[in-house]
Amino acid sequence: MLPLVEGGKGIAVSNGESSGAWAAAGGIGTFSGVNADACDLDGRLIPVHYYGRTRRERHEELLAYAVRGAITQARIAYDVASGHGRVHMNVLWEMAGAERILHAVLEGARGLIHGVTCGAGMPYRIAEVAAQYGVHYYPIISSARAFRALWKRAYHRFRDWLGGVVYEDPWLAGGHNGLSNAEDPLHPEPPYPRVLELRRQMAEFGLGDIPIIMAGGVWFLREWEDWIDNPELGPIAFQFGTRPLLTRESPISDAWKQRLIGLREGDILLHRFSPTGFYSSAVNNAFLRELCGRSERQVAYSTTPVGEHNVPFAVGARGRLVYLTAADKTHAEGWVAQGYTEPMRTPESTLIFVTPAKAGEIRTDQINCMGCLSACLFSNWAQTEQGSTGKKADPRSFCIQKTLQDISHGGELESQLMFAGHNAFRFRDDPLYSNGFIPSVRQLVDRIRTGD
């Protein structure tokens, strides 16, 4: 088996065709089990429509779609792989019903899935679930400390099913990143010392033979030559998340592929607008710039005069008064004059200023929430008995299900969230893609094996 792993990219971006092709080339293909596309018997996409009147009803519909889609993609991947390589399924622990979906998919796709990778949170129970179905598990972590917590609490009971540990660089990886509050998003740390610390921690637990899979920032293998056969690091494999986007089997639109080829260094933004609360990395397009603008047009308020917050300001159709500082009222009046006439309250006692059209879109998206996360900052949904986080919905965020479904099914690129790793600018100068060439997955894997 080639120690080359396709990174799983959520909501129909890593599917059965791409992951099956990666496995067929001798590596480990990973399809996304996060609201994957389902197809009918003729291979036609089954559109997703929600009919439930409540969030709870739509949540149950979403879980049913998710299970059906993941089983569909597992079957496609298995068939395309034709007995070569391995097929893994990627899930986010913070997605809605992660445990329920895993049980249903691993039961419905028995024998088709060889491993489960799981990150975006602390997936304590992934080991127990995978072991029940005789499937290896691959936790995605960003520090030795995180793995220690997972091992001590749960994984030590399921050592035999730990297939590997994915170290995902929290500064360079695409999608959601595992930056902790102790780490500075503006000052990246080199991966070698962090992975070495992880290996030493694993060795303490008797896991010196378990592979570490380096993910995030991996492009040319020749740049990692000192990692390979390095006795300090032990067994190492490499995960590629961004490069497989630009293959013939990749399901993303041609427009998206061309956008990737044109990226320049610095075009990827590490931000914290995701409704998960995690940092994430995506192309800095009009979608992210609008979110940045919302937070920049923000002032703190008080419901009663307190200290410098003693200048009245009317909010909403009823003109209810809140109190700003004199300087902030000047800012607010300036934004209103520019057309940002709708102040919206956040959970942190601040107001953001948006246009009436954007305010309407935000409220509509919050109302239409289908509960795609275990807890959502944007809509205040939570998969608890109460169905709510108990906090005010946050208009500084966005509906992640809506935008990722739109972009993965041909939506306009500038107005949607476009996840990508920070090395995506390298498509532009990589000779493999010169003259607009887009390789097949097998051609890409063969190229990677050369060191390039």
Describe this structure in a few short sentences:
Helices cover 31% and strands 16% of the residues. It contains twelve helices and 16 strands.
Architecture blueprint of SSEs:
Blueprint: E1 4-6, H1 16-24, E2 28-32, H2 55-81, E3 86-92, H3 98-108, E4 115-119, H4 126-132, E5 136-141, H5 144-153, E6 165-168, E7 175-177, H6 191-204, E8 212-215, E9 236-240, H7 254-261, E10 268-271, E11 279-283, H8 286-296, E12 298-300, E13 311-315, E14 320-324, H9 326-337, E15 342-345, E16 350-354, H10 356-367, H11 400-408, H12 441-449
Parallel strand pairs: 1-9, 2-3, 3-4, 4-5, 5-6, 6-8, 8-9
Antiparallel strand pairs: 7-11, 10-11, 12-16, 13-14, 15-16
Helix pairs in contact: 1-2, 2-3, 5-6
Description:
With about 450 residues, the chain is of the alpha/beta class. The chain folds into 2 domains: about 5-250 and about 425-450, TIM Barrel (Alpha-Beta Barrel), CATH 3.20.20; about 285-410, no CATH class. Helices cover about 30% and strands about 15% of the residues. The protein has 12 helices and 16 strands. The strands form 4 sheets. Strands 1-9-8-6-5-4-3-2 form an 8-stranded parallel sheet. The chain has a 3-stranded antiparallel sheet with strand order 7-11-10, with no helix packed on it. It has a 3-stranded antiparallel sheet with strand order 12-16-15. Helix 1 (about 15-25) runs parallel beside helix 2, helix 2 packs parallel to helix 3 and helix 5 (about 145-155) runs parallel beside helix 6 (about 190-205). The longest helix has 27 residues, at about 55-80. The two termini are about 20 Å apart. About 45% of the residues are buried.
